[in-house]
Amino acid sequence: MDDKKIMFSAVQPSGIPTIGNYVGAIKNWVDFQDEFNCIFSIADLHTLTVKQEPSELRARSLELLALYIACGLDPEKCILFVQSHVHEHAELTWILNTITYPGELSRMTQFKDKSARHAENVNMGLMDYPVLMASDILLYNAHLVPVGADQKQHLEIARDLAIRFNNRYSPTFVVPEPYIPKVGAKVMSLSDPTKKMSKSDDNLNGFISMNDDTDTIIRKFKRAVTDSDNKIVYDVENKAGISNLMTIYSLFTGLSLESIENEFSDKGYGDFKLKVGEAVASGLKPITDKKNDLLKNKDYLIKVMADGREKASRIAMRTLKKVYRKVGLVLPE
Ligand code: TYM
Questions:
Q1: Which ranges in the chain belong to alpha helices (H)?
Q2: What is the pTM (predicted TM-score) of this model?
């Protein structure tokens, strides 16, 4: 291994990723590939905390791998793997569970939100979700974890558990730092700009998926909820919808919020929404095309998965052995 630091992150294959997942996470990962030893996972075990259709989950996992590559992640440079392929994630979760308190999990915002949304299926996995996430990160001794703002609390638990384990036994884990982008850390729903854009939203108009075609994208932006004063001005508090569209436009064009205000100072919402839709559609088209091409070559994707699994397993096995030894488990010969 060289002396580069380690970066780890993951997306759940719980739906087709949205432009929120893209600008809040995956797009930033691509820029770090040379600076860090990067490890990116498909968090399929996390997905099981909410009811899934098994055949769809399987297909989405492969599709997410294709999307990672289509977005610019290079399997020659980073480790891309499926979480359930490396059994150490579940095993480290058990060990970390023994130093985690129920109170710190039950007060997690995402646990409370998801319990309310899935009241018929509030399971232990849903509550334990941040511990599995901590295991993902700590197994690889990741220094930096690039995520959107909604994962900040979970990163704090991962840090707390690393520190707690290191204090109780002896220094073992690197304490990870979150990397949350300044712009795009929380892209909001198009149909309710007070809510985060989510790939599992029942309202399809709320999000732009990384599968949407140009017409769908333009139609969804046309319907985006805004206000009635028809001025393109960035003001999150009073104009959440327009501010969200400005952020998206800025991320897809590279223009600053100020220059967007200037460009549209004499235009109305209709013109602006069309421009945002066009910018997003042209940004996503090459990615969607590449992903669809990759999906035609399943053998290649399966090989990338197998390579990723082998590399990730090697690191995970080493860490887990160390942990087992420190807590006093007898290692088999
Ligand atoms: P997930 O699948 O919900 O989201 C993947 C990534 O996208 C970010 N994100 C957003 N960013 C900006 N605006 C939004 N509207 C938006 N929605 C989602 C998320 O913050 C995340 O970075 N538990 C994680 C997956 C995971 C993980 C990990 C992440 C599993 N293990 C270890 C980091 C490290 C999740 O559910 O992400």
A1: 19-21, 27-31, 44-47, 54-70, 88-97, 102-106, 109-117, 124-139, 152-168, 214-222, 240-253, 257-263, 269-295, 298-327
A2: 0.96
